[in-house]
Amino acid sequence: MTLGLANISARGARAGLTIAALGLVAVLAGCLGPAAAPSGGLAPGLVTPISSEGAQMDRGAALGLINQYRSVRGVSALSADTTLNAQAQAVAAQYAATGTAPSRPSGASVMQLSAGYENFAETFSGWRNNRTDADALATSGASKAGLAVVYAPNSSYGTHWVLLMAP
76-134, pLDDT tens digit by residue? Predict the structure, then answer.
């Protein structure tokens, strides 16, 4: 069988992308340490569905995933901040209630919003795969972060995610 050069190049590109994706998953899973699932997958707190009222995200695991990404991008880790967590919770509640992107609170230099993703791993992937959002995650001047999610069963998207970062 003879394959054209274009077919070989396409297969090589697909194989390279697959290898790169598997490598990133392995790096991220390995960096989560003891919280990672025994199977080598992501920590349970990153893949737990937020699809019922009162469901909680694992802020520590989520911040760990963000910090691993920041490390890969060459910027320093963020520390959890209770004030930013409270602000993020208020923003997420407003976002869920109105369905409209709220304004960034004063003191926050970055605000990442997302809606409709069932868990944090999906939310993070959405941010990481969008160049603008990915660059915002890697903002070098940020040193602290707050995370929140609100589930609103009667809203168009259900879950509303917020990440706030500040110097």
Answer: 999 999 999 999 999 999 999 999 999 999 999 999 999 999 999 999 999 999 999 99
pTM over 0.85: no
Q: Is 32 strand, coil or helix? A: coil
pLDDT, one tens digit per residue, over 2-41 is 333 333 333 333 333 333 333 444 444 444 433 433 334 7
d(CA 95, CA 102): 6
Token couple for 56? 């909680």
Strands 159-166 and 110-115: antiparallel
DSSP string, 121-152: HHHHHHHHTSHHHHHHHT-TT--EEEEEEEE-
Residue with tokens 């602000």: 87
Non-local (6+) Cβ contacts of 131 within 8 A are: none
Residue with tokens 């290898």: 19
Task: Determine contact, residues 27/68, Cβ cutoff 8 Å.
Answer: yes
Edge-to-edge order in the sheet of strand 110-115: 79-80, 144-151, 159-166, 110-115
Q: What is the CA radius of gyration of the chain?
A: 18
Give me 121's structure tokens: 């791993």
Altogether, the residues listed in the chain come to a count of: 167
